Amino acid sequence: MKRIAVLGGGESGAGAAVLAKVKGFDVFLSDMSPIKDKYKEWLDKWQIPYEEGHAHTEELILNADEVIKSPGIPLTAPLIVKLMKQGTPVISEIEFAGRYTNAKMICITGSNGKTTTTMMTYHILKEAGLNVGLAGNVGKSLALQVATEHFDYYVIELSSFQLDNMYDFKANVSVIMNITPDHLDRYDHEMQNYIDAKMRILQNQTEDDHFIFWNEDPIVTKEIAKRQPLQMKLIPFTGRTVKEMGHPLTPGAYIKDGKLVVDLADQMIDIDVDDLPLPGPHNLYNTMAATISAGLSGIKKEAIRKALMSFKGVEHRLEKCGNVDGVEYINDSKATNVNSCWYALMSMTKPTVLILGGKDKGNDYTEIEELVRERCTALVYMGLHNEKLHDFFDKMGKPVADALSMREALEKCRAFAKPGDTVLLSPCCASFDLFKSYEDRGDQMKAIVAEWQK
Fold first, then answer.
1. pLDDT score recorded for residue 25
2. Ordered DSSP codes for 282-303
3. How far is CA 241 from CA 172, 249, 269, 271, 411, in A?
4. d(C-alpha 112, C-alpha 134), whole Å
5. Same domain? 352 vs 290
């Protein structure tokens, strides 16, 4: 019997272990951290042996025929290095799950916008009556769904970490929203390594498949030119108008006479831009990508329009928390890189007190420099190591303050803000210096604002 070892006992790893067990493999799971009760219940239900809370027992892993690795474990981890050196295949949960389903795969990546685009695409397909599952960075484990449910379609958000260990998996529809610097600490501070990870979403696509991308992204368009000839059908989208371009994108998505237009081989979809449920240029791009994906899935324009009108957005992404003393508080905790913060600041129409900081991933803040000058009245740096933020932003001469907790940060914002202002949490950084996750960071902000409103 083939032996599979799973490293990591979270949503991804526990789901992969269940699928391996269901398919008849000898399975063992190991996690150096404590495993949540929810996932222990899965493992116990399927009688999967596991260990937790201490170093991996190497003899129980090095003898595996194949290892499924959590996306959070870097390829440089000593045990992963040993496995690769001895020739043991190390794959991702998505790679493993893809072997056991014939469902159509709509796979979405990008430095920004991928979660909103994934959730919007899933919402449209589900509202239109398709039998669809949600997986990857959002939703349930793909492997668990393949093991215990049946779907005709999956909409999957893929991080660069997940793409790193995908080899034979194929997307029927691949989407790259954009590529900007992120996670460079994981990629030896080499941008091309990060780019190559993102572009892996295209591997194995054929002439029957589709690739959706932002037509103005300089990195993506350069990579497309480098990788010619590409077999799949390319469908670009743009925020530019037909008048600006001098021609429509055919096939593709663009703006014409105040309408978002999606031109596909079998139908033309148009929606008034003013009717779109989410504001900001980034959400225009997200809507274009989701609409193209839905159209390629056979959904007609009236069903797409109807579904879009009921889409509510993604938690922790430009999420309004409430108004206190005439000041609006916005939770954009999901903005864990500089480009996400750029989009958030572009959406601000009132003077803004900006909360930045956290675990820096090799950030270059030049991208938001002018927007901070123009739109921010004060800055609060929230993190254990704020030296880089002080060095870059203090020279602007705006009021600044440091904080070591969400409550302290919000109290200092409250002192800076005036009625009519906005307080924006859009940190540019990961959360792991002070918080469990970006969700924890955003939830704390919402809880404090709710407390102040009572």
1. 97
2. HHHHHHHHHHHHHHHTT--HHH
3. 28, 10, 15, 14, 43
4. 18
5. no
Question: Can you tell me the distance from the alpha carbon of 368 to that of 346, in angstroms, rounded to the nearest whole number?
Answer: 10
Sheet arrangement for strand 66-69: 50-52, 26-31, 3-7, 66-69, 90-91
Domain check: are 331 and 447 in the same one? yes
pTM equals 0.80
Q: What is the pLDDT of residue 393?
A: 97
Residues 353 and 403 in one domain: yes
Long-range CB contacts for residues 318-322, cutoff 8 Å, separation at least 24: 318/280, 318/344, 318/347, 319/442, 319/446, 321/445, 321/446, 321/449, 321/450, 322/449, 322/450, 322/452, 322/453
Q: Which of 262, 280, 309 is the last residue of a domain?
A: 309
Domain of 41, in residue numbers: 3-91
Together in a domain, 305 and 326: no
Q: What is the mean pLDDT of each run of 10 residues along the chain (454 residues)?
A: 95 97 97 96 97 95 96 91 96 97 97 90 97 93 97 96 93 95 75 91 97 96 94 96 91 95 94 85 92 97 94 85 95 90 89 93 90 97 93 97 96 97 94 89 97 92
Q: What is the pLDDT of residue 306?
A: 94
* Total Cβ atoms within 10 A of residue 26: 14
**Half-sphere exposure in the Cβ direction for 228 (13 Å, CA):** 6
Q: What is the CATH number of the domain that holds 187?
A: 3.40.1190.10
- What's the number of domains the chain is made of? 3
For the beta sheet containing 104-109, the strands, ordered from the edge strand earlier in sequence to the opposite edge, are: 132-136, 153-157, 104-109, 173-176, 210-214, 233-241, 252-256, 259-263, 268-272
Query: What does the pLDDT read at residue 151?
Result: 98
Q: Supply the pLDDT for residue 279.
A: 75
Query: Is the dihedral angle over the CA atoms 170, 175, 180, 186 positive or is it negative?
Result: negative
Contact (CB, 8 A) for 378 and 357: no
pLDDT score for 37: 96
Tell me if 371 sits within 8 A of 345, measured CB to CB.
yes
Q: Which residue has tokens 């979403």? A: 201
For residue 314, the model assigns a pLDDT of 78
Of the candidates 66, 25, 76, the one whose C-alpha atom is nearest the C-alpha of residue 167 is: 66
Is residue 314 assigned to a domain? Answer: no
Could you tell me the CATH number of the domain that includes residue 68?
3.40.50.720
353/260 same-domain check:
no
CB-based burial label for 366 (10 Å; 0-12, 13-18, 19+): exposed
In a domain, 418, yes or no: yes
Question: What pLDDT is stored for residue 281 in this prediction?
Answer: 80
Number of CB atoms found within 10 A of residue 147's CB:
22
101 three-class SS: coil
**Final residue of a structural domain among 52, 75, 91:** 91
